Amino acid sequence: MTLFTRTWGSSDRPAMVLLHGASANGGTWEEFAGRFGDWRRIAPDLRGHGRSPRAEAYSFDLFADDLHGLLDAYDVERAVLVGHSMGGVVAYRYAERHPERVTAMVLEEAPPPVPLGLQLAERPAGELDYDWALRPAIIAELNAPDPDWPARLAAIEAPTLIVAGGERSHLPQAEFAAMAGFMPAAELVTIDAGHLVHQHRPDDFAAAVETFLSHTNR
């Protein structure tokens, strides 16, 4: 899988990989990336999204495999992962499999690994900027997570900021607190913005990330 990728900053700076949500693309991070000029920022279009190729299969493990290849392609040994929604799941799934490659994580409204009962909406009319086939695949995974995920979350030692969107979000907010409780180095902050925190409250989201990263080792 070859991913279309946006990059900013010098390769000698600490790396931050920005992972978008379902049906979006790496361009959603442009404003956020502009606030972190002392980092090397890498924002791919994940498989099936934007200008990256459509694929025969979609799963969070495949997204994580693509992320591993991306880090290798850019000679990034360790990175901070910032993931929104689906991208947040990719981040914590990757951290569980490759802890040595993850400096820290920011999980923005990343669906917690509990049965969510999400419904697949009707396909929008017209041409899409993503492969519609990925949506049923990832919704099925989110609705039926592995039952051992609490223990797997507990094994993730990377410092983690979990950003919840408050009551306007469609995701169960109490489960974010439970998720933070499972992870040994996680903290939870709620920004009342709904599901798209980094878009609807960009200043508050960036400030929370800056504060969090100021206390982590790059």
Automatic annotation (TrEMBL):
Keywords associated with the record: Hydrolase
InterPro entries: AB_hydrolase_1, AB_hydrolase_fold, AB_hydrolase_sf
Pfam assignment, any one: Abhydrolase_1
Domain of life of the organism encoding this protein: Bacteria
The keyword Hydrolase appears for this protein: yes
GO molecular function: hydrolase activity
Location of the AB hydrolase-1 domain: 14-133
GO CC annotations, alphabetized: membrane
Protein name per its UniProtKB record: Alpha-beta hydrolase superfamily lysophospholipase
Species whose genome carries this gene: Kutzneria buriramensis
